Amino acid sequence: MEPLASKIRPKSLKEFVGQEHLVGKGKPLNIAISQKHLFSFILWGPPGSGKTTLARIYAKSLDAILYDLSAVSSGKADIKAIIVEKVGDHPKVLFLDEIHRFNKVQQDFLLPYVESGELVLIGATTENPSFEIISPLLSRCRVFVLEELSEKDMAKIIKHTGFKLSKKATDWLIAMANGDARQAIMMLENTSELYGDITVDTLKDVLQSKFLRYDKQGDEHYNTISAFIKSMRASQADAALYYLARMVDAGEDPKFIARRMVIFASEDIGLAQPTALVVANDVFRAVEIIGLPECAINLAHGVAYLCEAKKDRSSYEAYFKAVADVKKYGNLPVPLKIRNAPTKLMEELEYGKGYEKYTKEDLLPEKLKGKKYLKK
């Protein structure tokens, strides 16, 4: 049976709710759709913000053949099948959901078809494209950033479902869904099927059921990644590996986990064991190239290493102390001795005068002389 979210999906921009900065009058996607501009683009935004719907509206405006794939379950063979299919004069639009799940090799395979125009690519991602999409492919696509749906937008969408619920239940659902329209609709549909009446209590009962137990934008996601990081910080490898396994088993993006490990290597290990950053970066690269399920082994290797490493947060803490002074004092004058002097006038003004490469003189601005950020 077709899910309700699919049944009530907007067919045109007139029906679309939210993202006014992209689809409002005179805005980029509105212009592209109304004027039938043919180009590839990336939709970057949180779950349930309208990425799939916008892709379908765009493809319909072009009278294109739309191919709807998920990067989780698709690969090069699926792309090849699309390329060889004969469709006459209709453009081929490939909507690739969770494009960040395609590894570098798979993205490289897409590149020539996007470059030649054989495929119009619409990638959808919840992750920063700068980190997740290879530069050559990203340079051939525009990036549109979608925002989390507002409470007002969510209320409109809930009303459009046709379900009757009190203001209290509506407010609770909006707060729980956290801007994710698809989740709100799914909650309403399941609650109606299971209980008939939609109240705060019946909505809560459905929320506790297994299919929503690990919502990647919800509390369980943040609780688990928090437990994972704190276990590594405490050098408890067993606990960290358990939370790693839990996230992988729940379908968490392995690159999200690896990215947190790269951050951890500098934030919590830092100067105590500088090679930790090298290892964490190599784990991220392995995850990017290999993908699931095998990259879980690389993650486990990295987690065990980071747990066993000595910990030192001094560089992390020093940086934020410096940031605090930047915010407090603004752009204090740089000492003349260490200013660049590319012109004769600057030399005459004594820029760079008396500079010594290996001086022990304090090079901080005058107001901060003697300030120590890094503890040794």
How would you describe the overall organization of this protein?
This protein has helices at 4-7, 20-23, 28-34, 51-61, 76-84, 104-116, 129-132, 135-138, 151-160, 167-177, 181-195, 200-207, 219-233, 237-249, 254-269, 275-290, 295-308, 314-329, 344-348; strands spanning 41-44, 65-70, 92-97, 120-125, 142-145. It is of the alpha/beta class and 376 residues long. The longest helix has 16 residues, at 254-269. Helices cover 52% and strands 7% of the residues. Helix 11 (181-195) crosses helix 12 and helix 13 runs antiparallel to helix 14. It has four domains: 4-145, Rossmann fold (3-Layer(aba) Sandwich); 151-212, Helicase, Ruva Protein, domain 3, CATH 1.10.8.60; 219-308, Zinc Finger, Delta Prime, domain 3; 331-368, no CATH class. It has 19 helices and five strands. It is globular.
Shape: globular
Annotation field: number of helices? 19
CATH class of the largest domain: Alpha Beta
- Strand order of the main beta sheet, please? 2-3-4-1-5
* Proportion of residues in helical segments: 40-55%
Regions with little confidence, pLDDT below 50 for 5+ residues? none
First-last Cα distance: 65 Å
Please give the domain count.
4
Which fold does the CATH topology of the largest domain refer to?
A: Rossmann fold
